[in-house]
Design a protein that fits this description.
CATH topology of the largest domain: Rossmann fold
Mean pLDDT: 83
Strand order of the largest sheet: 3-2-1-4-5-6
Radius of gyration: 22 Å
CATH superfamily of the largest domain: 5'-nuclease
Strand content: 5-15%
Structural class: alpha/beta
Low-confidence stretches: 1-7, 12-40, 308-325
C-alpha cells in the first residue's frame, strides 16, 4: 500500500531510491512543507573557500523521492504537481546549504537506454511508473530549465551517465565535482586526486571520498565496477556471478586486483582462506560471461555524445554539455530563474517557492 504525503523535505531525502513502487515506509505524522518566504531577503551567502566546484544533482531521483514524500497536489488545470513542488524545494535546499553557484541538473531521458541493447534483461523487472508520476517527468526538466539551471537530458542515456560525463569534463577543466546522490553506482566516479570528485548525501551533506566509499562498498572506487560485476545488482536486474556474495567478491579483488586477474588464475582460489573457496572457482568459471557482461552494464558512460543534441529540442534550457572544457564554468553557472519561470510556477501554484529562488540567487550573486 502506497504511503504518500507524510514527510518533510529533510525526511524525504532519507528515503531509499525506489524502482517505482516504494518499500514499507515509516509512519510519520503529516507535515506541510512551507513555501519559501515571499518577502524576506536573505543575507548574502559567501562563496565557499577554495577553487569553484561543479555540483551535479540527480533531479530524477529527487523527483521520485518527492513523489513518495509529498501530499498529492494538482495544478489549476488538474495536472499532478506534488512531486514537482517537492523537487523545487529539494533543489533549493541543496543549493542554499552548499552555496552552490556552478550547478548541473541531470535527468533520465526514458526507460530504454543503450544498456537494454547490451542485455534486454536490464531493468526489465521494473513496471511502468504510476500515471501521476509519469505525468511529472517531462515538466521536471522544464522546471530545472525555468529556474536557470543547466539541465541535461539525453536520449539513450541515464542521469548517472550524464553525471559521469560532466565529472570528466570538469576534471579536464581543472574543476572539482560534487555529485549529489546516494546512488551506489556513482561511487565508481569518486576520486581524491585533484580535481577531486566527491559524492554528497542529499540529506546530511556528508561527503564520500575514497576512504568513505571503501567503508561503504568494501573496495576503493576503482574496484566498484568489478565488485558489482561479480555480485550483480538486483535493483537493476543484473545477475552477476551466481553464488558470489559481497565478502567473497571483496576478497577476490583484494587478492587478484580485477576481473582479468581473477579469471586468469582461478586455480589459486581453492587455496584462499575464504569460506567456500573450494567451490568458488567453479562458480566463477560458470559465471565468467555474466561477470564481463555485468561489467559493461555497471560501468557508467562518460562519453555521452551530447554535442549533437539540439538545445531547442528541450525548450529554452541548456541541454548540451559544453563542447570545450574551458566552457564548463560559464555554461553551468546558475543564471537564476528565467523569463518563463513565473508562468510555469503560477501554473504549479507555488509562486512563493519561485520568489525563494529569486532571493537565493540574489544572495549568491
Amino acid at each position: 500500500m502506497r504511503v504518500r504525503g507524510r514527510y518533510t523535505v529533510a525526511e524525504m531525502s532519507t528515503l531509499p531510491l525506489f524502482d517505482w513502487e516504494p518499500a514499507e515506509l515509516p509512519d510519520l505524522m503529516p507535515d506541510r512543507v512551507p513555501e519559501a518566504a515571499p518577502v524576506r531577503q536573505w543575507n548574502r551567502i559567501a562563496a565557499p573557500e577554495g577553487p569553484p566546484e561543479l555540483w551535479v544533482i540527480d533531479a530524477t531521483a529527487l523527483l521520485v523521492r518527492a513523489y513518495h514524500g509529498m501530499h498529492p497536489r494538482w495544478s489549476r488545470s488538474g495536472a499532478p504537481v506534488g512531486a514537482l513542488h517537492g523537487l523545487a524545494q529539494l533543489l533549493m535546499q541543496v543549493v542554499r546549504r552548499n552555496a552552490a553557484r556552478q550547478v548541473a541538473v541531470v535527468y533520465d531521458a526514458g526507460r530504454s537506454t543503450f544498456r537494454n541493447r547490451i542485455d534486454p534483461r536490464y531493468k526489465a523487472h521494473r513496471g511502468e511508473p504510476p500515471e501521476d508520476l509519469a505525468a511529472q517527468l517531462e515538466p521536471a526538466l522544464r522546471l530545472g530549465q525555468a529556474l536557470g539551471f543547466a539541465a541535461y537530458s539525453v536520449p539513450d542515456y541515464e542521469a548517472d551517465d550524464l553525471a559521469a560525463t560532466l565529472a570528466r569534463v570538469a576534471r579536464e577543466a581543472g574543476t572539482a565535482t560534487r555529485l549529489v546522490s546516494v546512488d551506489k553506482d556513482l561511487c565508481q566516479l569518486v576520486r581524491d586526486a585533484g580535481p577531486a570528485v566527491r559524492l554528497e548525501d542529499p540529506k546530511t551533506g556528508e561527503l564520500y571520498d575514497e576512504a568513505s566509499v571503501r567503508q561503504r562498498m568494501g573496495v576503493l572506487p576503482a574496484s566498484v565496477v568489478d565488485l558489482m560485476a561479480l555480485t550483480g545488482d538486483t535493483s537493476d536486474n543484473i545477475p552477476g556471478v551466481r553464488g558470489v556474495g559481497r565478502q567473497a567478491a571483496v576478497a577476490l579483488l583484494e587478492t587478484f586486483g580485477d576481473l582479468e586477474g581473477i579469471f586468469a588464475d582461478l586455480g589459486r582460489i581453492e587455496a584462499m582462506t575464504l569460506r567456500g573457496a573450494k567451490g568458488l572457482a567453479r562458480k566463477l568459471e560458470a559465471g565468467r560471461d555474466e561477470a564481463f557482461l555485468a561489467r559493461k552494464l555497471v560501468r557508467l558512460c562518460d562519453e555521452v555524445p551530447v554535442a549533437a543534441v539540439a538545445v531547442e529540442a528541450v525548450g529554452s534550457g541548456r541541454a548540451a554539455v559544453p563542447g570545450a572544457a574551458g566552457d564548463l564554468l560559464a555554461r553551468t553557472r546558475w543564471a537564476g530563474p528565467g523569463a518563463g519561470a513565473e508562468e510555469l510556477f503560477a501554473e504549479l501554484g507555488i509562486q512563493g517557492t519561485l520568489r525563494g529562488f529569486f532571493a537565493l540567487h540574489g544572495a549568491l550573486a
